[in-house]
C-alpha cells in the first residue's frame, strides 16, 4: 500500500522585545537562573499583568506580512495546566479570539501553506535536568517572555515542504525585525503534528505531536522517522495512539511522553485581568505602510535592476544585515557586480572564519567601498586588496592609512616596470626561448618573476603589456 504523510505545524517565535509580555523583566538570553523574573511573571498572589504594547505591534506586523486577516478585537485566555516550569499553573494565551487568522505562505513550486491562526502568548520556564545528582531544577527566567504561535493547516506532505516553509518563515520574521529566530537560543521552536493515511484517502489518520524541535535537521529527521514508525504500526495491524512524543537526537528516534491533550483539557476561559486588545484601522494602515521590503522582493530587484545572477541575489539576501550592507555599498558608488563579488567572496569568508553574522561585523560599507575604489583606480591590485581587507576586517581600520603604512600602493611607473622586465628577460633566456617556441606557460612564469621583484605591487595589465612588447608579440 502507498501511504501519504499529513503534517501541520505549530511554530513558537520569541518576539524581539526588550521586556516581557506582562512585566518589565528583561528578555535577554541567558543570565543566572531565576534572576530575570519578578512577582508578576512568577505568578505571585495579588500581582496584575500589564500588556507590553510592542508585543501587539510585532504580532500584528507578522500577521500582515503572512497575509493574515487581523482581528480588530482580540483577547487573552487562561490555559490551565500543572507543570513545574509554570509557576502560575496557567499560561496566558489566545484561543477564542487570536490576533490574526487565515494567512498563507507561498513556499514555491506552486505550493501554498495555509495559516490557521497566529496568536500571542507567554512562554513557560525551563526545567534543567542534572543526571549526576538525579535532580531536576526549575529556571523561571523564561517565564513571561513574549511569543507568537503560528498554527498552520495540515497542508504539508513531506519533510522538504516543512523545511521550505520554515526557511521562508524565518527569513520573513528576521526581515520584519519581529524576531532574531535563533533556534539555538529557543527563539524559534516547532511542534510537528503528523499522521499517515492511504494515498487517495480524504480521512485523516490519528496524529502524534512532536514537541519543541529546535533545528531544521532535527525536524526533518523526526518527520521521516515518525512517518515510518506509524506506517509500520498500521501495516502490522496495530493502531497509532494519539500522544505527545519527544525527539531523541542521540537515538535518532521519537519516544512517547504523554497522551495528547485536547483543548477542553486545558479548561480555557477569558483572562479576567486583561482587557480586550482593540486595533483601529488607522493603526493597522500605519503598520502596513511600515512593512519593509522583504527578501523575495529584494532578490527580484537585484536581478532586474542590477543584473545580479539569481545565486548571488539569494546569498546576499540570506541575512538582512548583509543585504543592507550591499545596498549601502551601491549607494556609495560601488558597481553592484563588484560589490556582490566582494561580499560573496571576502565578506562571507571572513564572517565564516570569525563565526559571526553580518549584523555583528565591525567593517562598514564605506571602508569596503574605499578599498574597491582603490582597485578600480589602479592603486591596488586585487590580491593586495584582499590582504588589506583581511587586515582591516575586524577593526574597520583605515584602508588608506594601512596601504601607506605598509607601502602597498601599486607601482604604475611604466619606466620602472620596463626596467624590471628587461632584468627578468635577461635572467631567464630559456623561458624566453620556450615562449617564442609556443609554450604559453613560459609567459606566465615571466609575469610571475616580474611581479615577484616588484613585490606584487605592479599593475598586472602594465606588466603583461610591456612583457609582450619586449617579446615582440605586441601590446
TrEMBL record:
It catalyses: L-aspartyl-tRNA(Asn) + L-glutamine + ATP + H2O = L-asparaginyl-tRNA(Asn) + L-glutamate + ADP + phosphate + 2 H(+); L-glutamyl-tRNA(Gln) + L-glutamine + ATP + H2O = L-glutaminyl-tRNA(Gln) + L-glutamate + ADP + phosphate + H(+). Allows the formation of correctly charged Asn-tRNA(Asn) or Gln-tRNA(Gln) through the transamidation of misacylated Asp-tRNA(Asn) or Glu-tRNA(Gln) in organisms which lack either or both of asparaginyl-tRNA or glutaminyl-tRNA synthetases. The reaction takes place in the presence of glutamine and ATP through an activated phospho-Asp-tRNA(Asn) or phospho-Glu-tRNA(Gln). The lineage of its organism: Bacteria, Bacillati, Bacillota, Clostridia, Eubacteriales. It holds the Pfam family GatB_N. PANTHER family: GLUTAMYL-TRNA GLN AMIDOTRANSFERASE SUBUNIT B MITOCHONDRIAL AND PROKARYOTIC PET112-RELATED (PTHR11659), GLUTAMYL-TRNA(GLN) AMIDOTRANSFERASE SUBUNIT B, MITOCHONDRIAL (PTHR11659:SF0). SUPFAM superfamilies: GatB/YqeY motif (SSF89095), Glutamine synthetase/guanido kinase (SSF55931). The keyword ATP-binding applies. This is Aspartyl/glutamyl-tRNA(Asn/Gln) amidotransferase subunit B. Its EC number is 6.3.5.-. It comes from Flavonifractor hominis. InterPro entries: Asn/Gln-tRNA_amidoTrfase_suB/E, Asn/Gln-tRNA_Trfase_suB/E_cat, Asn/Gln_amidotransferase, Asn/Gln_tRNA_amidoTrase-B-like, GatB, GatB_C_1, GatB_Yqey_C_2, Gln-tRNA_amidoTrfase_suB_CS. Residues 324-471 form the Asn/Gln amidotransferase domain. Keywords: ATP-binding, Ligase, Nucleotide-binding, Protein biosynthesis. PROSITE patterns: GATB. Heterotrimer of A, B and C subunits. Belongs to the GatB/GatE family. GatB subfamily. HAMAP family: GatB.
Amino acid at each position: 500500500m502507498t501511504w501519504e504523510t499529513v503534517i501541520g505545524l505549530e511554530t513558537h517565535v520569541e518576539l524581539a522585545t526588550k521586556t516581557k509580555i506582562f512585566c518589565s523583566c528583561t528578555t535577554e538570553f541567558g543570565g543566572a537562573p531565576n534572576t530575570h523574573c519578578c512577582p508578576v511573571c512568577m505568578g505571585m498572589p495579588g500581582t496584575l499583568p500589564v500588556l507590553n504594547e510592542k508585543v501587539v505591534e510585532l504580532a500584528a506586523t507578522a500577521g500582515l506580512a503572512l497575509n493574515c486577516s487581523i482581528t480588530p478585537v482580540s483577547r487573552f485566555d487562561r490555559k490551565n495546566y500543572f507543570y513545574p516550569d509554570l509557576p502560575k499553573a496557567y499560561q496566558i494565551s489566545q484561543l477564542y479570539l487570536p490576533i490574526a487568522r487565515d494567512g498563507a505562505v507561498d513556499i514555491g513550486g506552486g505550493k501554498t501553506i495555509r495559516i490557521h491562526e497566529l496568536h500571542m502568548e507567554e512562554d513557560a520556564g525551563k526545567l534543567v535536568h542534572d543526571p549526576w545528582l538525579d535532580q531536576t531544577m526549575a529556571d523561571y527566567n523564561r517565564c513571561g517572555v513574549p511569543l507568537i504561535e503560528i498554527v498552520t493547516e495540515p497542508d504539508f506532505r513531506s519533510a522538504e515542504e516543512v523545511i521550505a516553509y520554515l526557511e521562508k518563515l524565518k527569513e520573513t520574521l528576521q526581515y520584519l525585525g519581529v524576531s532574531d529566530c535563533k533556534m539555538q537560543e529557543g527563539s524559534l521552536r516547532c511542534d510537528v503534528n503528523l499522521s499517515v493515511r492511504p494515498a487517495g484517502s480524504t480521512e485523516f489518520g490519528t496524529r502524534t505531536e512532536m514537541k519543541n524541535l529546535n533545528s531544521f535537521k532535527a525536524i526533518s529527521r523526526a518527520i521521516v522517522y515518525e512517518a515510518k514508525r506509524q506506517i509500520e504500526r498500521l501495516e502490522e495491524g496495530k493502531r497509532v495512539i494519539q500522544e505527545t512524543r519527544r525527539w531523541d537526537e542521540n537515538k535518532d528516534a521519537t519516544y512517547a511522553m504523554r497522551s495528547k491533550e485536547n483543548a477542553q483539557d486545558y479548561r480555557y476561559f477569558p483572562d479576567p485581568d486583561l482587557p480586550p486588545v482593540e486595533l483601529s484601522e488607522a493603526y493597522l494602515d500605519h503598520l502596513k505602510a511600515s512593512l519593509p521590503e522583504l527578501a523575495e522582493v529584494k532578490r527580484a530587484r537585484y536581478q532586474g535592476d542590477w543584473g545580479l545572477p539569481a545565486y548571488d541575489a539569494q546569498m546576499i539576501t540570506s541575512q538582512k544585515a548583509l543585504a543592507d550592507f550591499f545596498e549601502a555599498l551601491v549607494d556609495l558608488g560601488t558597481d553592484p557586480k563588484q560589490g556582490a563579488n566582494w561580499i560573496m567572496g571576502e565578506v562571507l569568508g571572513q564572517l565564516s572564519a570569525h563565526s559571526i553574522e553580518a549584523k555583528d561585523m565591525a567593517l562598514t560599507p564605506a571602508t569596503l567601498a574605499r578599498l574597491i575604489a582603490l582597485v578600480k583606480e589602479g592603486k591596488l591590485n586585487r590580491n593586495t586588496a584582499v590582504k588589506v581587507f583581511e587586515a582591516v576586517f575586524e577593526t574597520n581600520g583605515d584602508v588608506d592609512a594601512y596601504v601607506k603604512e605598509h607601502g602597498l600602493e601599486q607601482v604604475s611607473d611604466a619606466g620602472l616596470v620596463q626596467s624590471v622586465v628587461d632584468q627578468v628577460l635577461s635572467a631567464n633566456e630559456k623561458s624566453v626561448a620556450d615562449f617564442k617556441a609556443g609554450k604559453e606557460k613560459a609567459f606566465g612564469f615571466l609575469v610571475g618573476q616580474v611581479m615577484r621583484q616588484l613585490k606584487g605591487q605592479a599593475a598586472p595589465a602594465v606588466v603583461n603589456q610591456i612583457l609582450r612588447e619586449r617579446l615582440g608579440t605586441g601590446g
